[in-house]
């Protein structure tokens, strides 16, 4: 890979030159690199799944960046050599993380993080027989990572199910078993 500076010939050229070189621009710099060819190996199942996930992430990025506010948000998260599209793909590719679920009396505290933003946290209270007793949206706390849900009742032997959702709609589920029974 070579960075091209002050070359009038390559100033407006982008793409591939034969099967030798690829010229592209990143962060206002022209880059000349050896053209990569396709792999001769058959892709593994894991690689095929990753490709499918990337197709979905790229489709999300293309669609969501038509909204100027969302595009500005992702652009604000971009570092050097990155753009809003890169950030939107990265966000769509990765799911949020639920680090823990805690109880403070009848308040359920869900600690959820995402590299970009957790859009919402849904909380369900389920009794020992598997019946859903209540469900609702948690409220984001001041620290930006704890989400609070005030339960009316926490049944012994039951469980709390938290679902964290990010902007692209990726979901992560975590359960907390309630003692007693």
Explain this structure.
- This protein is α+β, with helices and mostly antiparallel strands.
- The chain has three helices and twelve strands.
- The protein has helices spanning 45-64, 68-77, 84-93; strands at residues 2-4, 15-17, 21-26, 29-34, 97-104, 107-113, 118-126, 132-137, 139-140, 146-150, 159-166, 171-177.
- The strands form three sheets. It has a four-stranded antiparallel sheet, with no helix packed on it. A four-stranded antiparallel sheet has the order 5-6-10-9, with no helix packed on it.
- Strand 3 (21-26) and strand 4 (29-34) form a beta hairpin.
- The radius of gyration is 23 Å and the shape is elongated.
- Please provide the count of β strands: 12
Total of DSSP H or I helical runs spanning 4+ residues: 3
Largest sheet: 4 strands, antiparallel
Written as H for each helix and E for each strand, in order along the chain, the element string is EEEEHHHEEEEEEEE
What class, by secondary structure content?
alpha+beta
The percent range for strand residues is: 35-45%
The global form is elongated
Descriptive terms for the model:
alpha+beta; 39% strand; 4-stranded antiparallel sheet; 181 residues
Short characterization:
The chain is an alpha+beta fold and 181 residues long. The chain contains three helices and twelve strands.
List the helices and strands and how they pair.
Layout: E1 2-4, E2 15-17, E3 21-26, E4 29-34, H1 45-64, H2 68-77, H3 84-93, E5 97-104, E6 107-113, E7 118-126, E8 132-137, E9 139-140, E10 146-150, E11 159-166, E12 171-177
Helix pairs in contact: 1-3, 2-3
